[in-house]
Amino acid sequence: MAEILTMDSPRDEMAPEHPAFSFREARKLIGDLFVHNSFIYWTDMLLTGAVGYGCATCFLKTPGVTWLSAAAYLIAGFALFRVGSYIHEITHMRTGEMLKFRIAWNVLFGIPLLMPSFFYENHIDHHNSRHYGTVHDGEYLPIGAGRWGQLVLFWMQVPLLPVYIFLRFLIGTPLSFCYPPLRKWLLEHMSSFVINFKHRLTIPNNAPLKTWAWLEFACFLRCFALSVAVCVGFREPAYVFKMYCIAVLTLGLNYIRNMAAHHYRNDGEAMSHLEQLEDSVNIEGMPVVTELFFPLHLRYHALHHLFPSLPYHNLAKAHRRLMAGLPENSIYHRTVYKSFWSVVSELWRDATSEPKAANNRASAA
Q1: Are 188 and 125 in contact (CB under 8 A)?
Q2: Which of 154, 81, 71 is nearest to 113 (CA)?
């Protein structure tokens, strides 16, 4: 995995200070919270995965529509959404860190759910100050810059992505193995989980291409086996449709989370780390419900962009320290919202306003 340039890396000690925010002061307040607790990771992943797979099996095998199947469907969706979110944690781990956990997650969830961990390598660009909010950022659309059409494009992806990913592995993988010139193109253009399809993955020179190939081949076998099972009558088409419904629910939950992660006001210009922080959101209200829709404490998304290598189990503690220890006029305090709805209502106003009014930096210039 390529090195991630983050605010909490040593080289950022030279980052310019802001009169209303100090990186050094913030880092000092939470300096002891950067250690990953492997027990929490393993326990959370295995228990959540067991609940997700158990309820998914109940939903898939229960005929018709019943209260039991509906409850199993919803629980499976939220549980698989949570366990799938570990792909984000894995991307931020340093090379070689918690290697057994990464392998186990890919075997138990990445391959069965068709989301191998290398499909999130593009997330590195989302934290790069040269790429965040630009065409090189696959996780950013200028929804809040008066581009309501981008909001439509954003939600249209949800029902299409499960089919797209299935066909990409079933057809694209064997073709790329048989025709090597196609391989690099497939990795650059069709091997990333993005909302901005103009993004192209930059493959680092030290990328573990053999590992990626094995993970991809396993995903192909998963798709091929399911296709054969349907063709020979071992699985009914209705069973596959139910699998599709689970995938749509899980993806839909992730897109709901994404809507409240940022303000999406940037219209393509490079942004500084402080501007990234101001464009990001922390949500404090209704912690239990919020954790369902923002698993692994992703509701503290502005904090995550401030210190990307903080393990998820320490984000809440770090947030409390920063809120208590930083001055009230700190930029960090302005990232805090009390509910998901307050963030989304603001995003909707920005999306339906004039582009110039939504793009603060452009109007300021």
Answers
A1: no
A2: 81
What distance in Å separates the CA atoms of residue 323 and residue 30, rounded to the nearest whole number? 11
Distance CA 281, CA 337 (A): 7
Is the model's pLDDT at 25 over the cut of 50?
A: yes
Residue 352 structure tokens: 């339906």
Structure tokens, 129:
């100050």
Residue 19 confidence (pLDDT)? 53
Q: Within its chain, how far is the Cα of 173 from the centroid?
A: 23
Dump pLDDT digits (tens) for 134-179.
Answer: 989 999 988 888 777 888 889 999 999 999 999 999 999 999 999 9
In the predicted model, what is the mean pLDDT of the chain?
89
What does the chain come to in residues? 365
pLDDT digits (tens, 9 = 90+) for 217-252: 999 999 999 999 999 999 999 999 999 999 999 999
Give the model's pLDDT for residue 360: 45
User: pLDDT for 272-282, tens place per residue?
Assistant: 888 889 999 99
